[in-house]
Amino acid sequence: VKAEPACDVGSRVGLDAKSAEWLADHNVQSEVRTLSAACHRSLLPLLGVCLAPARACLVYPLCRGGSLEDRLYRAPAALQRLRMLGFETPLPPLSAAARLRVLRDAASALHYLHTLSPMILHRDVSAGNILLDERGNGYLADVGLARAAEATAGGNQRVSHLSTQRLFGKLGYMDPIISQSGQASQLTDGYALGITLLVSLTGRGAVGLLDECDDALEEPDTAESIAAADAGWSAAQAEELVRLVVGLALVKKKKRMPLAEAAAAAGGARRTGGR
């Protein structure tokens, strides 16, 4: 299935292989039509889909800067993936400003998906699904789990959730609301973004990270103590990011921060100091 992206893209592409189970769980042609109509400067556009069960894949433009996750962790497997993109020697750590730029871009793209009609929920936001180009711009990627929010019976009321019988998303990034209610929403996407912010601040893996950072999350003015030393975070930047994490992921459901506010705050944090 060929998508017709509304955005201009480069000529090199990347393939995201999918399982037969993924094919069975998706109304692929309908979702391709929905997703290919989405266009935002920081949303990696879907170019096409192969539906052959043994070769199922999604086709996207190739982002040669790697994923945010690989650039943060720099583990052997991550370095191997970066070498496949042409980086023969390890890249220097991403600076605080570079991380904030990428996070702002991804948050802006996620908010855009939520403003569409029907609303699109990403459902798999993570550091691994944010990609960088060669200039350091960030792109929200892997919309393969994204779904349009369900239509109401009358078709006129805007809905904000998607019921599901399956769990989705990555360990550490999944909002407890999903396992409790079986519903994805703007809030559960926001929760995953909040964890991504914390991963970017600390340079650590998402699983168990909230517990590891418990003290700083309770007292954001101590956030510099958990910030990755090689990124050059200022105390003000670290505190601002931790406050965003709390607003997106730790407060009660009804009091969580809107994504538009989080995206604007991430852009503001970039201007408060650091390299």
Task: Outline the secondary-structure elements.
Layout: E1 13-17, H1 20-24, H2 28-36, E2 48-50, E3 57-61, H3 68-73, H4 76-84, H5 96-115, E4 120-121, E5 130-132, E6 138-140, E7 147-148, E8 161-163, H6 176-181, E9 183-185, H7 186-202, H8 209-212, H9 214-218, H10 235-250, H11 259-270
Antiparallel strand pairs: 1-3, 2-3, 4-7, 5-6, 8-9
Q: Tally of extended strands?
A: 9
Shape call: globular
Major sheet strand order: 1-3-2
Q: What is the CATH superfamily label of the largest domain?
A: Transferase(Phosphotransferase) domain 1
Beta-strand percent range: 5-15%
Mean pLDDT figure: 85
Relative helix content: 25-40%
User: What string gives the helices and strands in order?
Assistant: EHHEEHHHEEEEEHEHHHHH
Secondary-structure arrangement, i.e. CATH architecture of the largest domain? Orthogonal Bundle
CATH fold node name of the largest domain: Transferase(Phosphotransferase), domain 1
Structural class: alpha+beta
Biggest sheet character: 3 strands, antiparallel
* Uncertain spans: 151-159
Taken together, the total number of domains comes to: 2
The CATH class designation of the largest domain is Mainly Alpha
Q: Please give the count of helices.
A: 11
Q: Please give the alpha-carbon distance between the first and last residues.
A: 44 Å
Radius of gyration: 18 Å
